[in-house]
Design brief:
By secondary structure, the chain is α/β, with parallel strands linked by helices. The protein has a 6-stranded parallel beta sheet, sandwiched between helices. The chain contains 9 helices and 6 strands, in the order αβααβαβαβααββαα. The two termini are 36 Å apart. It has one domain: Decaprenyl diphosphate synthase-like (Undecaprenyl pyrophosphate synthetase).
Length: 254
Amino acid sequence: MSDQFKTQLMASNNLPRHIAIIMDGNGRWAQRQGKRRVMGHKAGVDRVREAVKVSRELNIESLTLFAFSSENWQRPADEVSLLMELFFTVLSREVSKLHRNNVKLKIIGDISRFSEKLQQKIAKAEDKTKDNTGLVLNVAANYGGRWDITQACQQLSAQVARGEISVSDITEQAIEKHICTSHLPPLDLMIRTGGDCRISNFLLWQAAYSELHFSDTLWPDFGEQEFLDIMASFANVERRFGCTSEQVSASIKE
């Protein structure tokens, strides 16, 4: 069923180029089963592999996953420690497979707060896959949308201070070039699992005109078919970007 469905989706020629996922519900999934919260995060890794696989098969250009937010440092210290350990382990295990499948890995966010060992692992993983030409997999780690906009403005302000640009040069286009996803297509679709209907400081700038989908499914239970169903729904959405339906229709005919 899914293979035929994938073929139909690709034939629609209206798939998102860039998808972002807030992978929520790992801890609750574990607690409902009487397990430690970290077991939910470990179970969620399988869903990451599946999301990457489906995105590759559908020739999606970019997939951005919210792995660890700048606010997640407020969680219990033992959970944060285990998440860092899991992040390191997954990087070590998965990068060779990503490389074999022509996936380019990018870590977006402020990684300066991570251990030197983890920063080195990130640098090696990115370097190993930097020349790959398939799916761009972005893992947002110690990332926050407000931080992203702030650091972009700081870079531009520093250029003003050095006399390289003027204040009037700080435009939307200039900020766009300095946010963490400047190397990616515009964000088309944001998915959040776990039942909450908010974007939790994720890709705030990028989400301005993206389609939002909120799923009640906890991330470790988020399967391939639901992912495909969401993309099928996206394929049928008329995206107007502030225009009228008539204007959109006219632009398609031109």
